[in-house]
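HUMAN: Can I see a protein plus its fold?

ASSISTANT:
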Amino acid sequence: MATTSRMSTPERPHTDDRAAARAGGHRASGVLTVLVADPDQRCRRTTTAALRHGGYIVESARSTREALSKLRRRQLAAVVVDPVDVDPAELIRDLRTRTEIPIIVVSNLVQEHDRVALLDAGADDCISKPFGVEELLARIRAALRRAEAPRDDPPVTTADFVVDLSAWRLRRPDGSDVQLTPTEWRIVDALVRRPDRVVGNGALLEEIWGAGARLKTHYLRVHMAAIRRKVEPDPAHPRYFVTYPGLGHMFRPGDKAG
């Protein structure tokens, strides 16, 4: 298969799923299994061929209902889905309640706000059709690397909240959880892992949304404002999640409580 071919246009996750993907999301030793769900037969076959060309075992589904069934019965490393037969964001939210493995959306959706909604709902990446085979494989590899990274980070304690990156929990002193969207969590994760360091806008955008988003600084403005509303004592004068205009963003843990 030529690598330059292009396709034709036609409540919190369970914390053990990602470990299961690392340990055994495969059928044969060392070979990962990816579920491809696309109602368009031609696109489904093309995506399946691309993944097999990349060395993956492929489970295919003709509908999202079939995909959900296979998700329950199969041990998978990732899902590639075109949610054309259902409400896309609702499907991604549903998938996220069932699994923590990477979800890559391939779709004809061309509006930026549609892609942002899917990422906010819990998708790991979004690719517009038509796309190149090598781009698809590279994005799957990147999503799997992020999923497979060992997470044994100790909790980070501030005077106003505790961030547990391993458990994806942010707790107030009274023990209540702060509810963040998946995209907000990715931003918090990226900043908290680099305390007292300015993370450049381009680097942060690429880490969260992919290489094509390096200039989409308004994404960060919107999501950083939402994060501050949820965690900062005074969102208008942030103490922990600080923006340096034209440069990037920083997490400043400050002095610990007690």
About this structure: The CA atoms of residues 184 and 222 lie 10 Å apart.
